[in-house]
Amino acid sequence: EPLDPVRYLTNRSTGKMGFALAKMARRRGAEVLLITGPNYLTLPRNDIRIITVSSAREMYEAVMDNFEDYHVIIKAAAVADFRPKDILAEKIKKADGTYLLELEQNPDILKELGKKKGERILVGFAAETSSLMEHAEAKLREKNLDLIVANDVTQPGAGFGVDTNIVRIIDSRGKVRNLPLLTKDEVADIVLDQVLKIIKKRKRTEAWPTNW
Question: For the chain, how many structural domains are there in total?
Fold first, then answer.
């Protein structure tokens, strides 16, 4: 989130999990749109459509403009909850004393998708530092998700900027699958397996679109 022409607010997420999901979904033959923030990663395949955004509001607009064209939405991006209320036109100069920064809330992309998803499958992620299951289960309910992938970023190998993860996958019935330390590609494959299980179950029990 830009603060002035030089500085910005961000978090430690690198986008590696989202890129792994895009790569593994395309490998299975899915039509993939990857909406990503600024990063230093290499596009996992040249046949993946990509939209790059630089702020939470831009990501919100890109998601809302495109989600209706897709059957499954997996939101792995660690989008900023807040942004500076005012973006300054000139660099903030060093000065003695305290600089007060006023923030305002960004749109909640996942919550909005939960309201509008219809028959689509919606998967969210929860990166936590404490009370992992409590926070993940609350997010699953409050945002009307079909699955949530939760990880404790304080665990070695499960934080930001690494190629591995340790996650728990929770479905809308509260069933939990605990995964050991795996590569992010391996985690992505298992998440996609869970999505396919939901699709197959719904096909058997509901009138789903014939092109699924």
Answer: 1
Q: Catalytic: which of 11, 46, 144, 211?
A: 11
pLDDT at 206: 62
Q: Note whether residue 141 is domain-resident.
A: yes
Asked whether residue 6 is assigned to any structural domain, the reply reads no
Any domain includes 1: no
Q: Does residue 183 fall inside a structural domain?
A: yes
DSSP string, 33-101: EEEE-S--PPPS-TTSEEEE-SSHHHHHHHHHHHGGG-SEEEE-----SEEESS--SSPPPP-SSPPP-
11 labelled catalytic? yes
Which domain covers residue 77, as residue numbers?
A: 16-84+100-205
Tell me the CATH number at 65. 3.40.50.10300
What are 122's strand-pairing partners? 73
| pLDDT tens by residue, 161-207 | 899 999 999 999 999 999 999 999 999 999 999 999 999 998 876 65
Start-to-end Cα distance in the chain = 37
Provide CB contacts within 8 A for 42, sequence distance 6+. none
> pTM of the predicted model, to two decimals?
0.92
